[in-house]
Design a protein that fits this description.
Layout (H helix, E strand, L loop, with lengths): L1 H5 L9 H48 L1 H4 L5 H10 L13 E6 L12 E10 L4 H4 L7 E10 L3
Antiparallel strand pairs: 1-2, 2-3
């Protein structure tokens, strides 16, 4: 009698393998969307850091206009510095990036210590989840401001 208890079949019953396949088929899309969403959030945070770095680089370049001797083209210098910021992985251009400089224009060199505010607004297009999940936004607006003072 004892032998019969231990001599049960070790192979799975018919239909158990099919049940596992159905369970995986049901849960796999949910897991896939979660992982893609996690990657999407990481890309958005990375883009936000890149926008902050571009604003900081534009403000730094603009704050040196007294040193360079040309403050009349301040907005153009700042916009060029923002779009061509070294190490930038985003595709910043005139269609997806708006650069605002305050003060917008200067007729002469500003006083040392005068603040310069550079605001960069970038429209980020998520590559993954917005194509799969319709309620996720197709474009995300990222904005960052940086304030520096004009240097000697």
């Amino acid at each position: 009698m004892r032998k019969q208890l231990f001599s049960q079949r070790s192979t799975p019953r018919r239909g158990v393998q099919g049940q596992s396949l159905v369970e995986i088929a049901l849960i796999l899309p949910v897991i896939l969307v979660l992982f893609l969403g996690l990657a999407e959030v990481a890309f958005i945070l990375y883009a936000h850091v890149q926008v902050a770095n571009a604003a900081r680089e534009g403000a730094r370049r603009g704050s040196l206009c007294r040193f360079n001797g040309d403050c009349t083209t301040l907005a153009a210098v700042v916009e060029t510095a923002v779009i061509n910021e070294p190490g930038q992985a985003l595709n910043m251009n005139g269609s997806n990036t708006v650069v605002t400089v305050q003060p917008a224009s200067l007729s002469s060199a500003p006083a040392v210590g005068t603040p310069l505010t550079v605001t960069v607004a970038y429209t980020y297009t998520p590559p993954f989840v917005s194509n799969i999940v319709p309620m996720f936004p197709a474009e995300i607006s990222l904005e960052h401001s940086s304030v520096m003072r004009f240097d000697k």
